[in-house]
Specification:
Structural class: alpha/beta
Strand order of the largest sheet: 1-3-2-4-6-5-10-11-9-7-8
Largest sheet: 11 strands, mixed
Helix content: 40-55%
Oligomer: single chain
Number of helices: 16
Order of helices and strands: HHEHEHEHEHEEHHEHEHHHHHEHEEH
Radius of gyration: 21 Å
Strand content: 5-15%
């Protein structure tokens, strides 16, 4: 195969490697060349060993030539957020407190990637402890702007074509918002689809794993490869996982029904984002029902914050005594807020969380997906000192619902703005099928207007 191989989809690259049309070594070499050319500005990587990446690719090629079984991601490069344990490279959590830290075993999802034949390229940068304090990663579309967080490096690496696939995590909006800012697809499946064993814990109740890719099918392929039951993860469920790739490639048997809730925090949307969503709703016509959000739904953002502050305090507070000077202001403030939350307030919040899960379980009997912004607009300038506002993601993360952002809008400065769809729990394949339908419907509308 000739030309720029970094433009290949992961689905096509994996198929070409399995059939012998493409060598993993050639593919990985082109990605490494692209990293060499752009990484000094983008700064997506916390750890990257080029020699080790090439050796993995060579081993994948030898394995295939011997006629042995190949996995769904055989020879395809993947980046991992720097809170995911690997035995052969450091995992440092985005903090100097853990510089050079080495895990004793791979995270469960890393075992799944190795089983699928993936080339694990390295660790992508994360905000401090996957929370709010920004890293130095820049947005590939505009180096003066943030890639968002906390999965900053994963989104930037995919958008810059350093890798076709990357793994991130989301406790608030840390997959969906970076994907929106960087113009990639971001998919957070139902809570419990992907194991969190071997991933730094900020919140046992809220932490979830997601992926970034440059196409819907690629995001589905990676999620299929990562998903499994893990009895050591309290969120993991012992049931078959939805076929993500099958959903992404399927045609909707009937036109899906979508719902748009008019949430009070939508007044935070930038004007171009607000206008863009009006155009999307208009283009989809009668398939979108717009309705006011009940006050109880809007208040779920506060419930999410209570749980998050309480639990991140429990997980990071042990570092405060010996490493307080190394913690950011954002982290010390979160610890202080967590200390102020009583056990009773925390238990009440968990009860509301359970009620929200039940409510959304009934909602998707009538609708295929919720339509919602992924972020408040385009990527913020780095000078703002913020990775952006997660408010558009927290309700759905609280309820553990599958969420997908697609790079369908462009803002006033020519930067991407994502469109988010939220589906029913464990109906991820249905959500991806609805997303494919929506993309096609919007393209058809544009063609008619042209």
């Amino acid at each position: 195969m000739q030309g720029d191989l970094t433009l290949l989809s992961a689905v096509d690259a994996a198929g070409a490697i399995r059939s012998g049309v493409l060598h993993s070594e050639k593919l990985v070499t082109q990605y490494l060349n692209r990293i060499d050319a752009t990484e000094p500005v983008i700064k997506a990587w916390a750890h990257l060993d080029k020699g080790e990446a090439l050796q993995q690719a060579k081993d994948a090629d030898i394995w295939r030539k011997k006629g042995r079984a190949t996995g769904a991601l055989h020879g395809v490069p993947v980046g991992l957020k720097d809170i995911i344990d690997t035995v052969d490279m450091p995992t440092q959590y985005g903090t100097p407190i853990h510089t050079g830290r080495r895990a004793e075993s791979d995270a469960r999802m890393v075992e799944r990637l190795r089983e699928a034949g993936a080339v694990i390229m390295g660790k992508t940068k994360t905000t401090e402890f996957a929370y709010l304090h920004p890293t130095d990663t820049t947005n590939p579309h505009d180096a003066t702007r943030t890639p968002a967080g906390s999965s900053s490096g994963s989104a930037a690496a995919v958008a810059a074509r350093h890798v076709p696939l990357a793994v991130g995590t989301q406790t608030g909006g840390s997959v969906i918002r970076p994907a929106s800012f960087c113009g990639t697809y971001g998919f957070k499946p139902t809570r419990g689809v992907i194991s969190r064993t071997g991933v730094f814990r900020t919140s046992v109740s809220l932490d979830q794993v997601g992926v970034m890719a440059n196409s819907l099918a690629d995001a589905a392929l990676l999620t299929n490869s990562l998903g499994c039951y893990d009895q050591t993860d309290p969120a993991s469920f012992a049931a078959p996982r939805p076929d993500m790739l099958g959903g992404a490639l399927a045609e909707a048997p009937v036109e899906p029904a979508l719902v748009w809730f008019d949430l009070p925090f939508f007044d935070r949307l930038d004007d171009d984002a607000s206008e863009g969503f009006e155009q999307v709703i208009e283009a989809l016509g009668g398939r979108v029902e717009c309705m006011p959000a009940a006050p109880q739904m809007a208040s779920l953002t506060d419930v999410h914050k209570t749980i998050y502050d309480y639990e991140i305090c429990q997980n990071v507070r042990p570092f405060e005594a010996d490493h307080g000077d190394a913690l950011s202001g954002e982290m010390t403030e979160a610890i202080a807020r967590g200390k102020a939350i009583t056990d009773a307030q925390y238990e009440d919040a968990l009860g509301v969380k359970a009620s929200a899960e039940a409510f959304f379980g009934n909602l998707f009997e009538d609708y295929d997906a919720i339509l919602c912004p992924s972020a408040s607009g385009e990527a913020l300038p780095l000078s703002a000192g913020s990775t952006g506002d997660a408010i558009n993601c927290t309700i759905w993360t609280l309820a553990g619902l599958p969420c997908l952002t697609m790079p369908l809008l462009v803002g006033a400065n020519g930067l991407p703005i994502g469109v988010q769809l939220i589906g029913g729990a464990q109906e991820d394949d249905r959500l991806l099928r609805t997303a494919a339908w929506m993309q096609n419907a919007l393209v058809s509308d544009l063609d008619e207007k042209d």
